[in-house]
Write a structure and sequence with these properties.
elongated, two-stranded antiparallel ribbon, 1 helix, about 55 residues, about 40% strand, alpha+beta
Length: about 55
């Protein structure tokens, strides 16, 4: 029983190494820009610019 548990645990740990990604192969992020603006009143404005091909 102990050997079976070890084999099962090893199989579960190795499973991600043999799986394929669920997203399309042509999908990609060409540009990611992040701008932080810290204002005098302590507020931080964050702007994300994302160029994504899908």
């Amino acid at each position: 029983m102990r050997v079976l548990r070890m084999i099962l645990a090893l199989a579960i740990l190795l499973m991600p190494a043999f799986t394929t990604p669920a997203h399309a192969a042509a999908e990609s992020v060409r540009h990611l820009g992040v701008t932080y603006d810290v204002r005098a009143d302590g507020v931080i404005e964050v702007t994300y610019e994302l160029d994504w091909d899908f």
